[in-house]
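Each field is set out underneath.
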Amino acid sequence: MSLEQVSANAMFGGKQLKLKHSSSALNCDMIFSVYLPPQADSVNVPVIYWLSGLTCTDDNFVQKAGAQQFAAEAGVAIVCPDTSPRGDDVPDDPEGAYDFGLGAGFYVNANQEPWSQHYNMYDYVTQELPGVLASSDLPLNTENCSIMGHSMGGHGALTIALKNPGKYKAVSAFAPIVSPMNCPWGEKALSNYIGDNKADWEQYDACALVAKVEEKLHILVDQGQEDDFLRPQLKPEMLQQACHEAGHPLTLRFQAGYDHSYFFIATFIEDHINHHAAALWG
């Protein structure tokens, strides 16, 4: 599968790439970004997938998180997919709301019309994109990977790691939607993408999944205490309770004074990169 290079920039001794390809899972062209650390000049490096939140593209993390300097030090690549399918033929929220449709794929496989034709972000992140990377000439060890994300992307990272035992060496999240079954953002997305049967929603709910998984992959979560979405949407105490009941290892850190923004992410991204690098190089 051919990759088109959209841009390339030198950064911290490595390269920040923007790439484009035709996606069969999403039935549209997709753009994603890859940071290659300087170590990639001589060895295939491990991969951290970053999943962004509502309204984001692949650019938000690349331009705002300040992660590349720490990825360069740790010798890891960071792959940033988009948050939804894109294109003139891709349906959007009928009312143009930010929390559904374009920029809000929720990392699920939709089975309801008209969404099911394009909104298969789960398959894209877990199967198609890794396959595209593995078949490319990029110096990546795609078999040695981990996953992290923010908000909607934090939900995606948690559920994808929990649903794919053995595939990811580490998982972490910033301000994740821990139980989309129990918040307005998630209820809107899941009802439209998956249908009204809430039993079907459990496959995309981290709190529901924790109770069932056999692999006890340590979860690292940072949550800002001044986050406007903390109580109505994120509810980290639900994940804390679910992990406690399941005996699942969780480090949940509440950060005083921090909100939901990339200022928060940039402050603690070094910790997360090191968390992943230890597992990937260990």
